[in-house]
Amino acid sequence: MNLKWSMLPFLLAPALFAAPAPEPDSQESKNKPFSIIYHPFQGLWDNSLAVFSLENTLYYHLPSVASTTLLVQTNWDYDYQLFSQKNNLMPKTVSQGMLDAGWYMPLVLPAAVYGWGFAWGDSSWQMHGASALQALGLTGGFTMALKSLTGRRGPDKDLANPGTTSSSFRRTTDAADFQFEFWKNFERGDGRFFWPSGHTSSTFALAASFTATTRSWVVGVLSYGLATTMGYAMIDGDHHWLSDVISGALLGHVVGWTVGTSFRNRDQPVKAGSWRLTPMTGFGYTGIGAAWYF
C-alpha cells in the first residue's frame, strides 16, 4: 500500500465541512451529548425503493446501461483504456493510493462525522453522517448485486501486449466479456466482478449525500471533485473500464442524492401546492401513494 497517496482523501476531507451548513428548521442543532437524533436506518426501506423511482430509472439507471452498451459496442471502452495505458496521465503511485484509500475512506469519513455529531449532540452533523452511512450501505449492496449478476472481467493491464503483466485474477482484452450467470461469478480468481466500479459508486454516493444534506456548493465542488478523481484513478490504474466508472458514478449519485434529500427533508414543513410520491408496502400489496398538500 502506498501510504503517502492513500492518505490524500483524508487530507482533503476536512475541507468538505469548511462551509457552514444550513440547519434543519424544526429543531435546534445542539442537543444533549450522546443523544440520537438521526441514525443510519431511518427511512431505509422507503429510500431503497425511491432509488428506483420512475424518474431515477429514466435519468440514471437506463443511461447507465445505455452508456455501457454504447462504449462496448463502439469499442470506445477498449480504445480509451489503451489510450490511458499509453499516456499515463496520472502517476501510478497516485492511482494505487486512491485504490487503497477507497477500501476504507468511504466508511471512515461518514462514521467520523456521525460520531462527532453523536458525541456533541449536534443534529446537523448526525444528519450528514447518518445519511452518508445509509447511502454507502445501499450503494454497496446494489453495486455488489450488479457485479455478481453481470460477471464482467476487468481490462488487461497491458492491452498492447496482453498476458504479459501479472494479476491476482483473470483479466481480458475484450470489453464485452460479461457473464450473466451469477451463480458462477463468485470465484475471485475468475475476476468477474468489475461492473460497476465500487470505488467510484461509493465515493459518488458520499459526494451526493453530503451535498444534498449540507446544500453547500463548496462541499459539492470538493466532494464531487474527489469522487471524480477516484473514478479517473480507477481507469488510469487499469482497475476498471471507462464504462465501469461511468455506471458507478451514476449509481452512486442517484443513491446518495435520494438518501441525502430524504434526510434533509425529514423535518422540513411541506409547502402548500406541492405533491409527493411515496413507496408503500403491506401484506399482499406493493404500490405508490400520491399526496397533494394544500
From TrEMBL:
Keyword presence, Signal: yes
Keyword tags: Signal
Phosphatidic acid phosphatase type 2/haloperoxidase domain location: 132-264
Gene3D superfamilies: Phosphatidic acid phosphatase type 2/haloperoxidase
Domain of life: Bacteria
Extent of the signal sequence: 1-18
Protein name (database record): Phosphoesterase PA-phosphatase related protein
Species whose genome carries this gene: Turneriella parva (strain ATCC BAA-1111 / DSM 21527 / NCTC 11395 / H) (Leptospira parva)
